[in-house]
Amino acid sequence: MRTVGVEEELLLVDPETGEPRALSGAIVARAALDSADGKDVFEKELHDQMLEYATQPQSGMDVLGREIVRCRKEAARHAGELGCAVAALATSPLPVSPCVGANRRYQWMAEHYGIATREQLVLGCHVHVSVDSDEEGVAVIDRMRPWLSVLGALSANSPFWQGKDTGYNSYRSRVWQRWPSAGPTEVFGSAERYHEVVAEMLDTGVILDKAMVYFDARLARNYPTVEIRVADVCLHADTPMLLATLARGLVETSAREWRAGLEPATHSVSVLRLAAWQAARAGLTDELLHPVTRRPMPARAVVRALLDHVGEALEDSGDLDSARVGVAELLGRGNGAQVQRELMRRTGSLRDVVTECVRRTQE
Prior knowledge:
Blueprint: E1 4-13, H1 24-34, E2 42-44, E3 50-54, H2 61-80, E4 85-87, H3 104-113, H4 115-118, E5 124-130, H5 134-144, H6 148-155, E6 160-161, E7 164-165, H7 171-176, H8 191-203, E8 217-219, E9 225-232, H9 238-259, H10 269-282, E10 287-289, E11 296-298, H11 299-317, H12 320-333, H13 336-347, H14 350-361
Antiparallel strand pairs: 1-3, 1-4, 1-5, 2-3, 5-9, 6-7, 8-9, 10-11
Helix pairs in contact: 2-9, 5-9, 6-10, 9-11, 9-12, 11-12, 13-14
């Protein structure tokens, strides 16, 4: 059974006003002091209004789901002790002036990328799925490229930006594309070629290090995993568990195709960018590009196609029924973007949107 881990970035906000607060350093320090061994799962991120956590790798999705809930509650507790709250929002609905962290790496980014760094207060969810080798990992990355935009649509949770409705369901993903190394990738064909491309990118001097290789899916630097990086941080804690389930199914399905000698789809990077843009714009409310035909289809039909594509792998891992239930619940309730817009229609207040999202983050 492949193990799965999740990283989530949470927005720190004032519990009364909903405005972002730059307190990640204090929260990380407090969490470290509070832990038994002086270590904790929480880290600072690019901006001081962001708090990141990472789960341990798990084989069972129920265990992973409980750990996601535990980490969110712990983050909320540490933040609350400093008069702050956490919200699983992929952008701040309210206007914000982001504070770039003081460490040397983040300051290099601010100097080299200018406004793209200063405005990059966006919060994602990354899923790590174990692989046996770099060769298997690259084979998986090559074969799951067309399906990643569907995960982006399922996770969409960033309709507001600087106090206004953007018209997108995932505006985070559009802001993220400002990084020079972000987005879908070509078919690499081998681990050797993957590492050659990364080396060529580093040799240009445009990016600082391997951590800045922001592919939609990449080989993790420190773990034997494929890291899938297309998702917004999700409002409800059951959604990242669903994403992790589908991601493991995608990795296993892609690995089986590779072992069976099936070649990856030949979709161009240009078409994959169009699919990602459409997913960001539409979320689950309109048409998506079908990963096989590359033609528009209703979002629900495309999501069903993803379930069908990974169905055998999910059945073998015992996750098929729970994945079907999770997808049905998400489609019925709506993703985070749909929930945020409904809250805005009901209350007329972005502050109330944030307050309610703080509550839902810990459910």
